[in-house]
Design brief:
alpha/beta; Methyltransferase, Methionine Synthase (B12-binding Domains), Chain A, domain 1; Rossmann fold; 3 domains; five-stranded parallel beta sheet; three-stranded antiparallel beta sheet
Length: about 280
Amino acid sequence: MVYLRAKTVKGEKYLYLVKSVWDPKKSTSRQETIKYLGRAAEITKDDIPPDYRNDKKIIAYLSSIDTVSIVEKEELLAKLRGQLYRYLIRGDFDSTKQLYDTYSATSGTPGFFEKILTPVMYQIGDMWAKNQIGIADEHVASNIANTLVKMINSKYTDISTKKKIVICVPEGEEHNLGANILEMHLASIGHRVYNLTPTEPHNSIVSFVESTKPDSIVVSVTLDDSIKPAQRLIKKIAEHIDVPIFVGGQAIKDEQIQFEYAQIIRDTNLKNIARLVTSKK
C-alpha cells in the first residue's frame, strides 16, 4: 500500500511518497520512504514515479490540489470516474466505498458526489437509454450508489436541527439518488430533512407538507416523462401551502423548461443548493 505522508516544517507542508512494508520479525508494518516529493504546494503528477501515478490515493490527492493544471486534474478525475464506473457496474460496494474514503479524505464528501459519482451516474443513465448497457446493470449501479449514500447519511441522524426541508419526486419517478445525496448534505450541516422518495402519491405529499410545515420543498426530476407530473405536483403544493418550492434534476437542464410555482435550480453545486433552499423565509 502506498500513500502520501506529510511533514510540516515552519508552517510549510512537505510530502513523501511512502509504502507499508511488513516486518515479520516484529509482526507489524513499517513505513518505507519511496521518494521525497518536496513542497506540497508545488507537486504535480510528474513528481510521482510512473509506477505509482495510477494508485487511487495518489490520484485522489493530485486531483484535489490547486497546483495541478486543469487538464491534468481532468485526466485524474477521468481515471477515478472510470474506476468507479467499473466498481458500480459489477456491484463492488467495498471498492466503491474505498474510492469514496480515499477521495473524500482530501476533497470532501460534496466533492466526491459532484465530481465523481454524479457524472458517472449520468453516464450510466445515458448508456442505458442508448441500450449500451442493460437495465440490470443500471439497477446494480444505482443500488450500490444509494447504499453508499445511505451509509454516509446515517452519520447525521442525531445532529441539531436548523431548518426543515422536504425532498420529494413526482408520481412515477423512481430515481432518487440525487435526492439522497442532497439529503445527506443538508443533514450533515444540521438541517432536518424529510426524504419522501422514491415516489409517493401527490395527495400524500401535500398532506405531509401541510402537517409538517417545512421551511422549503425540493422536487427532484430525473426522467423527461416526470416533468409534467412535477409541474402538477408543484402546482398542487402551492395551492395548499405558502412555502418556497425548488425544482432541479437531470430532466430540467433544458432552459426551455419552466415551472410557474417553483424556482429552478440548474448547474450549481451542493453547497449553493443548500444555501439557496435554506435561506428563503
